[in-house]
Amino acid sequence: MKQIDILIIGAGISGAVLAERYAAIGKKVLILEKRNHIAGNCYDYIDENGILVSKYGAHLFHTNEESVWDYVNKFSEWYPWEHKVIAKVDDKMVPIPVNITTVNELFGTQISSEQEMQKWLEDNRTPLDNPANGEEAVLNRVGPVLYEKMFKHYTKKQWDKYPAELDASVLDRIPVRHNYDDRYFSDVHQALPKGGYTQLFENILSNPNIEIKLETDYFDVEEQYSGYEKLFYTGPVDRFFDFKHSLTEKLEYRSINFVSETVDAEFFQENSVVNYPGTEVDFTRIIEYKHFGNQKSSKTTVVREFTVDEGEPYYPVPNPRNQEIYAKYKLETEKLVDIHFVGRLANYKYFNMDQAFKNALDLFYTLEGQEKSQTVD
Ligand code: UDP
Question: Which sign, positive or negative, has the C-alpha torsion 252, 87, 271, 61?
Answer without folding.
Answer: negative
